Amino acid sequence: MMQQTLDAAWAAEEVPEYTRMCMDLAVSEIGSNIIEHSGNGQPVRLRMVVTVGPKTISVVLNDDGRPVAVDLTEAAMPEELSERGRGLAIVHRVVDRVCYSRDRNGNCWTLMRRRAE
Fold it and tell me: What's the structural domain count of the chain?
């Protein structure tokens, strides 16, 4: 469903292929983390909004899962042989801004990238 939403946004707007690929990867990583970790084994409601502006693209992912203990300033690649833990580091490399917040409605992830390559 996330990829279908992105594909619809890309079809409606002329977005450079590399920019689309970077946003697809970032959304996949954050969305997978939400699905895997946020619900603690229970279903999670996930809402995604894609905004393609004249200069930037933003994707906001909201979920009603449990709070995330994350320090976005410390997102780094794990040791070479580690099988997990690369997601946030990859996201930081492919988008210009990653933000996380939590309010009474749940978690909110915002991903932003300049539209031009």
Answer: 1
